[in-house]
Specification:
It is found in: Cell outer membrane. It comes from Spirosoma pollinicola. Keywords: Cell outer membrane, Membrane, Transmembrane, Transmembrane helix. There is one protein chain. It is built from 17 helices and six strands. The chain has 408 residues and is of the alpha+beta class. The strands form two sheets. The protein has a four-stranded mixed sheet with strand order 3-6-4-5. A hairpin with a 5-residue loop joins strand 1 and strand 2.
Amino acid sequence: MSNSLLDHLRSTFAPTAVSELSRVLGEAPAPTQKALDGLLPAVTAGVINRVSGQQGAIQLYQLLRDTPFARDPTLSQLVDTGDHRQKAAESGNGLFKQLYPDQPNRLADATAQYSGVSPGSATTLTGLVMSVLMGFLHQQLTSRSLTQAQLTALLLGETDSARLAIPTELAALLGWLLGTPRPASAMPLRTEPIPPAANEDRPAGVVWWRWLLGALALLALLFLLLRGCNRDKTQQTVGASAASATDTIASDLDGNGPEVRVGVDLPGGRKLSVVEHSFNDSLARYLATKGSQTPRVFTFDNLTFETDSARITAQARPHVADLIQIMQAYPTLQIRIEGNTDSTGDEAINDPLSGERADRVKQALIQGGIAASRVSTRERGDTKPVASNQTATGRQKNRRIDVIITKL
């Protein structure tokens, strides 16, 4: 279920639907979007935090099993039908209260303070997000017959991605939700007596020589350790640095290392969690740099399509959603999307397919609220290879989508 929680929430609370939701709540679109940009990862992280303890894991599992969830709603249903929206919000807030009985309104209050929406709207949005998230978890639990341990493991696997996506300003208000450690003064004091040593009542003279032998042995061991440390200290330091550099290079170049996610701040207070050095990471940093020149080409390295099709894979849709957020944060940005193929196969099939894939990306951006005038497309076919078509690796690099920044 890697990334599926935030992906599902973001697909439900898409920008166009959020605009309609802001209308029925009587809020401006910008603060509503800002509130949801914070709530989606915050609610997710809060639910994940509950399963970090045994009691919380049991409680969440029972809630998901015993609560009569309706079919997972679309946001259009939540927007268009007032009764449905109200019931979903009340249900979500009720579930949140069961997980955090001492803090039923604190997340909504923090969201209102952070985003500028009214406390009432923040409460409704919190309930809707919780309702959609718990409904999705219920569907995952039942359709996949997950045990409590499996559900807990899947949720904990998304801890970092959820926390990194929370805007810094909002995260500062949510220590209670994210599981910050208690201060030392709050830790319970040990009150039970310490049992006496087994030979506490023996005469001291009986065992003095054992203490002497032990002390001599410790001194000898300490001497050997210090001698070894002095001899190897420099080698160990250099070796550790070299290993660290090698690991980093290997992860960056061979593509087999674990993905490292980083937080990227966007204008307007939004914060993305993206894979380090990925397309969206590089694009966001380029746009944040003053004096950046155009045109500039970026390869959409984590955008994939179904085989012999222009359909974007489910794994790639979150990366398109991140591009939508970046373009919303930079309203004057204009791009051209170019489809490229390798030189194998029939050109009569490959060339149109490269154009169709570029068009499909454009349509996804438009559906996410980006004006069509800001996005153009071009079919490149196999005319712009970046690697040799004689190897499988080279052909894979040539089958790509390029995004060209044409105007800032």
